[in-house]
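New to this. Help decode the following:
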Amino acid sequence: MVQHLEAVFEQGVLRPLQPLALAERQHVQLTVTELHDTSHSTGSSDSARIPEQEWIRDHGADYRGQWVALQGSELISHGPRGRDVHDEARAKGFSRASRPSAG
């Protein structure tokens, strides 16, 4: 089962903003996507990301555990190493690709 929901990070804990249908102590895999603060946003940057968000909703499970580079709803590159995905996207001419931070 795949669920997409919004959560807030408070005092070191991710707290979902809606109820979850999960058993107590059930393990899940999380993918964290930082959302822009909508209280100060005009909404233009958020709406520009809708094609990527829809792609992730529709295809994310197929690429679980991998990094993906998207341009709108087009998959540019994917793989297990973020730096390799970044470099391939840049090599394909996508100069706005930002390098993933070392974690």
